C-alpha cells in the first residue's frame, strides 16, 4: 500500500504523477529530454545508466522497467543489459561506457564521490564534456526518481512480463505523461 | 575547478543550468512548482526541507543557498541553523518536525521512510499532498546536490554571495531570469 492515496492498480511513478500531474509534467519532460533527446550516447546506453543507478538504489520498479527499456532498445544485443547489471567490469561494452557507469555509480553514492581521476579515466576513453555532464545528470535524476517511487511506497508489480511490456512502450513511445485521474 | 567548462561568474547550480538549458527547463519548472507554487506549506518551510536534505548530502553550495533563502523568508537565521543541527529541538511545528524527519529518511534512501514516520506526520495534521511534496522536494534535492557536487562546481566562500542569492531566490524564485545572467559578470561576490 502506498503511503498516500494514489490510483489503485497503477504501478510506480505513473501512480504518483497521476496523483499530482503538475509536478508530473516536468518530471516526464526531464526523463524524455535526458533519455531520448539528442545525444552521442545511444538511448539503450542511457537506459542502462538509469537501470544501473536504480539497481544500486534497490528500487525494483525503476530497475525492472529501465532494464526492460534498455533490452528493447538493444534488440539482438539485449544480453548486454544483464551482463552489466551482474558485473560492469566483465560486460561486453566499450571502455568509455564502463568509465561512465563508474561515474554514475559514484554519483549514486554522493556527488562528492566523483574524483578528478574518475573523470580523467572517462576522457581517456573518449568521453566528451557533454557525455560526462549527461551521465552525472542521469544518475542524479534517478537518485530523485528512485526516492520518489520508494519514498511513497508506490506499487511495484512482480510479474516480469508486465515490465517487458512497459519496456517496449518506453522504447517505442518514450516518456509520455499518463492522463490524470478523472474526478 | 569544475569537471566541465562552465561560466566563471555562475558558480554552483546556475552555471550547470545555463550549460544545458533544455534539461534545465523542466528542473526549474519542477522546483518553482514545489517551492513557490500554491501549497499549505509556507515557502520558508519548503526551503527548510531543501536545507536539511542538502546539509545531509554535504552539498555546501545548496546548503548555504537554501539556508539563506529560508532565513530571508523567515526574517531570522536561527530556525534554519537549528533544523540542520537537530530537527526535534528546532523551533518549528510538530507537523514540520514530522515532515523534516520524512525528508531526512528520503535523503538516505526512499525505502527508509517508515510507516511510523508517515503516521506521525498524519497525526500532526499533514495531508497527502504535504507528504507527497515533502518526499518529492527531498528527492529533488538529492538530484541537485549530486548534480552540483558530481561535476565539482565552484562553491564561493564569501557569505555575502549567499545573502545575495537568497534574496534573488525570494524575489524571483526558480524560473530562469528573463534577461539571463550576464549582469552577474560585474559582481565580485563569487570570487
Query: Hey, which two chains have the biggest interface?
Result: A-B, 49 and 49 residues
The helix-and-strand class of chain B reads mainly alpha
Query: Any idea what the shape of chain B is?
Result: globular
Secondary structure: number of strands of chain B: 0
Calculate the mean pLDDT score of chain B and round it.
97
Label the structural class of chain A.
Answer: mainly alpha
Please write the CATH class name of chain B.
Mainly Alpha
* pLDDT averaged over residues of chain A: 96
Q: Name the helicity range of chain A.
A: 55-70%
Proportion in β-strands of chain A: under 5%
Q: Give me the CATH architecture of chain A, please.
A: Up-down Bundle
Superfamily (CATH H level) name of chain A: AhpD-like
Number of helices of chain B: 9
Summarize the structure.
The complex is a heterodimer of chains A (183) and B (191). Chain A is an all-alpha fold and 183 residues long.
Structure write-up:
The complex is a heterodimer of chains A (183) and B (191). With 183 residues, chain A is mostly helical. Chain A is built from nine helices and no strands. In chain A, helix 3 packs antiparallel against helix 4. The two termini of chain A are 21 Å apart. In chain B, helix 3 (43-56) packs antiparallel against helix 4, helix 4 (60-74) crosses helix 5 and helix 6 crosses helix 8 (128-150). Chain B has helices at 12-19, 21-36, 43-56, 60-74, 78-85, 94-108, 115-123, 128-150, 159-172. The chains are: A mainly alpha (183), B mainly alpha (191). At the A-B interface, helix 2, helix 6 and helix 8 of A face helix 2, helix 6 and helix 8 of B.
Amino acid at each position: 500500500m502506498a503511503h498516500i492515496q494514489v490510483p489503485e492498480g497503477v504501478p510506480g511513478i505513473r501512480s504518483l504523477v497521476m496523483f499530482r500531474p503538475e509536478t508530473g509534467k516536468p518530471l516526464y519532460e526531464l526523463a524524455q529530454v535526458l533519455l531520448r533527446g539528442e545525444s552521442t550516447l545511444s538511448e539503450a546506453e542511457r537506459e542502462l545508466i538509469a537501470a544501473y543507478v536504480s539497481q544500486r538504489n534497490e528500487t525494483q520498479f525503476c530497475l525492472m522497467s529501465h532494464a526492460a527499456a534498455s533490452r528493447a532498445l538493444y534488440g539482438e544485443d539485449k544480453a548486454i543489459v544483464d551482463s552489466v547489471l551482474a558485473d560492469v567490469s566483465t560486460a561486453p561494452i566499450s571502455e568509455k561506457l564502463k568509465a561512465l557507469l563508474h561515474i554514475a555509480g559514484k554519483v549514486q553514492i554522493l556527488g562528492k564521490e566523483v574524483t578528478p581521476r574518475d573523470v580523467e579515466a572517462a576522457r581517456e576513453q573518449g568521453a566528451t564534456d557533454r557525455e560526462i555532464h549527461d551521465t552525472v545528470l542521469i544518475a542524479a535524476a534517478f537518485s530523485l526518481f528512485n526516492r520518489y517511487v520508494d519514498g511513497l511506497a508506490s506499487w511495484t508489480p512482480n510479474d516480469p512480463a508486465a515490465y517487458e511490456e512497459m519496456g517496449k512502450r518506453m522504447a517505442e513511445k518514450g516518456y509520455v505523461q499518463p492522463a490524470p485521474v478523472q474526478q | 575547478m569544475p569537471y566541465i567548462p562552465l561560466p566563471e561568474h555562475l558558480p554552483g547550480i546556475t552555471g550547470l543550468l545555463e550549460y544545458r538549458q533544455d534539461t534545465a527547463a523542466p528542473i526549474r519548472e519542477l522546483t518553482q512548482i514545489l517551492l513557490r507554487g500554491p501549497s499549505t506549506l509556507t515557502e520558508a518551510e519548503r526551503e527548510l526541507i531543501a536545507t536539511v536534505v542538502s546539509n545531509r548530502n554535504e552539498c555546501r553550495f545548496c546548503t548555504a543557498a537554501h539556508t539563506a533563502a529560508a532565513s530571508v523568508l523567515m526574517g531570522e537565521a536561527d530556525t534554519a541553523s537549528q533544523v540542520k543541527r537537530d530537527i526535534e529541538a528546532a523551533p518549528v511545528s510538530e507537523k514540520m518536525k514530522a515532515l523534516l524527519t520524512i525528508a531526512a529518511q528520503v535523503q538516505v534512501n526512499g525505502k527508509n521512510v517508515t510507516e511510523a514516520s508517515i503516521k506521525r506526520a498524519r497525526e500532526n495534521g499533514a495531508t497527502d499532498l504535504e507528504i507527497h511534496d515533502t518526499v518529492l522536494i527531498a528527492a529533488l534535492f538529492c538530484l541537485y546536490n549530486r548534480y552540483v557536487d558530481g561535476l565539482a562546481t565552484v562553491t564561493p566562500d564569501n557569505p555575502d554571495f549567499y545573502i545575495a542569492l537568497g534574496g534573488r531566490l525570494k524575489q524571483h524564485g526558480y524560473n530562469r531570469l528573463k534577461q539571463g545572467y550576464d549582469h552577474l559578470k560585474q559582481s565580485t561576490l563569487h570570487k
